[in-house]
Amino acid sequence: MATAIQPLPDDQNAHLQAVYGAALTQKRRQLILGCVIVVLLALLAAMGAEVDPHKFATNFWKFPRYFYDMTPHIGVMTFFDDVAEWYWGLGKWLRQMAETLLIAYVGTITGAVAAFFLSFIASNSLALNSWSQFAARRFLEFCRTVPDVTFALIFVVSFGLGPFPGVLALAVHTTGALGKLFYEIVDNIDMKPVEGLRATGATWAQQIRFGAVPQVLSNFTSYSLLRFEINVRGASVMGFVGAGGIGQLLIEYVRKFYYVDVGAVLIIIILTVMLIDYGTEKIRHRLIAMEGAR
Question: pLDDT tens-digit profile of 199-213?
């Protein structure tokens, strides 16, 4: 059955239109004011950081020029010979890239294991007591606040050049980063299984093993894989401070102005990171799908 909508009286309709227009105008003013504040803060930050637009405009051409210098001359008739000459050190570079992957892998595994145990101590729902929770959270904050390159510098001074300082630096920073994510996951689990185990007299370790771990394991693995992607890129930079890997070779070429070799090494790093990202993304999506199917 059709029903007719009765129109509002003209005076009431005009009042509603005026109220709506005033609200819309106020929203626009707030938006404009917010944009002006953001622009002013950006300008103040640029002044404080001594950003020089004139210098940027004057020297911008050097940026694409650098990439041009990294590109070798490759002819059509001599394509394979030119590429072979470009990648003259492919074997050595691949060995260095493999070392970088091992640094990232060991650092990720070590940090993930430490974060796994600390996350339960730092959580709100499963902490042993307030003191241990406070200590665990402050320790995780320290680990993730200090940049991994700074840790690498400290460990290089302590243990010398090589992959070991890079592994330690990534492990410490990974512990802090994953620990934060892990204890937030633990804080959001269903506490009913844990409370049921507690009611039967289960120990704290048993409550975690049988009540919490089955709920968080897939998410922990997913975040660990994501962190491995990040650490592969981070391990490439560790070499800049002498912590092993292909970064150590890359910074040597940069300092010696071997532009063509820099380009070759960068392509190896980029392709490796792309493959790692693609593979871990597929695994993480599968884990998330399995978690959603439960």
Answer: 888 888 999 999 999
